[in-house]
Amino acid sequence: MNPVQQQLVASIGKNGCLLVAFSGGVDSTYLLAEAVRTLGRERVLALTARSSTLPAHELDQCRHLALHIDARHLVLDSLEMDNPLFTANGPDRCYHCKSSLFDLCDQVIAQQPHPPSWSIAYGANRDDLGDHRPGMTAARQRGILAPLLAAGWGKAKIRAASRELGLPTAAKAAFACLGSRFPTFTLITPAELARVEAAEAVLRDHRFRQFRVRHHGTLARIEVGADELDRFDDHRFSQAISQAIAATGYQRVEIDPQGYRTGGANPPRPERQEPP
Question: Can you name the residues that pair with 119 across neighbouring β-strands?
Fold first, then answer.
């Protein structure tokens, strides 16, 4: 174990018991695996918040990953959609999302045999510092631990360490909750979230690795990884994708020629359009 890993393990090992907010992404999966290795299975608990902002596919992956890691895993319903400050989708949407998640974490800890011995951790890392991340403010206000961030780990290091542990998430594409598909101040509703989920399932079924379906009312704007854009040069393929996404309830489907980018829901740009 190198000194950098030793620092992370020492940071995790300081805790009596650890509740990991577990989304199934690269960061929280590695954090959970390292916590189980360091503290032991009985002193670690993974919590996944079930919500209409989390696709069923991702929830299934969380369950499979927890089994792979041999971690104890809870799935509980989140109440974020009951909060009008979240559904209003202002610039602080992620603050309210994370607050709801950490409320759930607090409830779980209160039900444990020895609550004072438990800490809460989530998978924030160094690369998150360059983004607009109101959720990190919610975490700091509540004293939520971020061991990867504290150790100075970025995504590349986390992926490398994940490969060493044989974690299936080592090469997993970045993912964010479905609420991120809506432009700021566009109301988020369960029905529209379900439509986005169905539209993104089309891209997943066609084996795209990095993708988003940005929701602009009756318009679906497709973003895929820059290395996958040339798949749309095949007109028949492009038309088939557009028709399948239109069948989920969108009147227009556009393919963003710039490809996937973080925060791409704002603002829309002129795109290449395919017939529905």
Answer: 18
Full pLDDT tens readout for the chain, 276 residues? 677 788 899 889 999 999 999 999 999 999 999 999 999 999 999 999 999 999 999 999 999 999 999 999 999 999 999 999 999 999 999 999 999 999 999 999 999 988 889 999 999 999 998 777 899 999 999 999 999 999 999 999 999 999 999 999 999 999 999 999 999 999 999 999 999 999 999 999 999 999 999 999 999 999 999 999 999 999 999 999 999 999 999 999 999 999 998 765 554 443 444 433
Residues 6 or more apart in contact with residue 171 via CB below 8 angstroms: 159, 163
Q: What are phi and psi of 249, to 5 degrees?
A: 125, 5
Fill in the DSSP letter of residue 113: S
CA dist list (Å): 85 to 92, 139, 144, 177: 8, 17, 22, 16
Q: Cβ contacts of residue 77 below 8 Å, gap of 6+? A: 49, 50, 51
Model pTM greater than 0.90?
A: yes
